[in-house]
Amino acid sequence: MPPLLFFTDPDRTPEPWTVAARLPVGSGVVFRHFGAPDALETARRLRQATRARDGLLLIGRDAELAEAVAADGVHLPEALIGAAAGLADRHPGWILTAAFHALSPLPDLTGLDALIVSPVFPAGGASAGKAPLGVERLKALTAATDRPIYALGGVDASNAPQLIGSGVYGMAGVGSFRAAFGPD
What element of type H or E holds 58? Predict the structure, then answer.
């Protein structure tokens, strides 16, 4: 698993391949298309960009699209964590990640390779308005599982140092990645 995961967002990153092409070598991209009509074309462009950077491509929720573009795996929403074991059985070479937003105990993580925990800090996008988990809750989650955990949601240069010693495997983001690696 790479230490950096760029999450796409159709509104905030309308041309995500431009960001993916500038990511550090070996980074990962999670393409979330939310039913966009150009999902296949965008996924193909992301596959090309991630291959050129020796990176990882995961497709959000859509195993068929992941197969179509030879992605490295699938990222599941929290509501579908229970589907990970079956998906892992059907695609043993795939990397499977899932979102986790709750303050409840961790669910059964069978089949998952990593967990994306959000929002860690106050965030925009899909996490806008959700209470941040904070670093202490993040530490408790990393201590409760052997799966790699990524911090997502409001992570930027000003607060990333707070993650040192938290046990997170890596960082994930939308806006911070666009700001750091985007074309503008």
Answer: strand 56-60
